[in-house]
Amino acid sequence: MPHTSPHPQGLQQKPHDAKSRLQQVDNLHTLLLQHMVQGVFCVEADGRVRFINPAAENIIGYASDSVAGTKLHPLIHHHYRNGNEYPECECPLYLTLKDGKTRHINDELFCADGTPIDVDYVVAAIKADDKITGAIVLFNDTALARKQQALLEQRELSLAQAQSLAQLGSWRFDVEQQSLEYSDECYRILGWPSGT
């Protein structure tokens, strides 16, 4: 007679199998953190750095072991973009550590060694048994994206000026939307009200 078990086949594990799987999950988490392009800070409930990943080290210029145990806010988030002091009680990380809400922040500065770094970031609470035990911060250095956007805007302005000088217009057909987009100069040449 076959042996029957109250557990579905494959769900009952021996202790060493569970330990092995836990080690595999831990290794996977380590690999993910090491190879992410986003910077990651993990902080304790008091705002002290537990660890940072290699991308964060590259972006802010601090080694993980040199900032472990240091309060994050005074280290990198101490001033607003306008140079005014950024009180810790207004910091999204501090607020998340108090209320547990996830926050998405765009267009802020982190300052490492006095060097401002444009960032977008998300901060989320880490909880155990409904108690906030820390937070995780994922951030992107947006300086390159902002430079590329400024360059694109400058090139679009230069194209518009060149079209005006040459009295040439242009248009673009969007295949997905099945719509035409005309340059300002094209509207002027055709005598159409802009945007019609």
CATH domain class name of the largest domain: Alpha Beta
Amount of helix? 25-40%
Evaluate the radius of gyration. 26 Å
- Structural category is alpha+beta
Could you tell me the number of beta strands? 7
**Tally of domains:** 2
Largest sheet: 5 strands, antiparallel
Would you write up a description of this structure?
The structure is a single chain. The N and C termini lie far apart (82 Å). A 5-stranded antiparallel beta sheet has the order 2-1-5-4-3. Strands 6-7 form a two-stranded antiparallel sheet. It is of the alpha+beta class and 196 residues long. The chain folds into 2 domains: 15-141, PAS domain (Beta-Lactamase, 2-Layer Sandwich), CATH 3.30.450.20; 151-190, no CATH class. It has helices spanning 15-35, 54-60, 64-67, 72-76, 92-99, 143-166, 184-190; strands at residues 39-44, 49-52, 103-112, 115-128, 131-141, 171-174, 179-182. The longest helix has 24 residues, at 143-166.
Furnish the topology, listing elements before pairings.
Elements: H1 15-35, E1 39-44, E2 49-52, H2 54-60, H3 64-67, H4 72-76, H5 92-99, E3 103-112, E4 115-128, E5 131-141, H6 143-166, E6 171-174, E7 179-182, H7 184-190
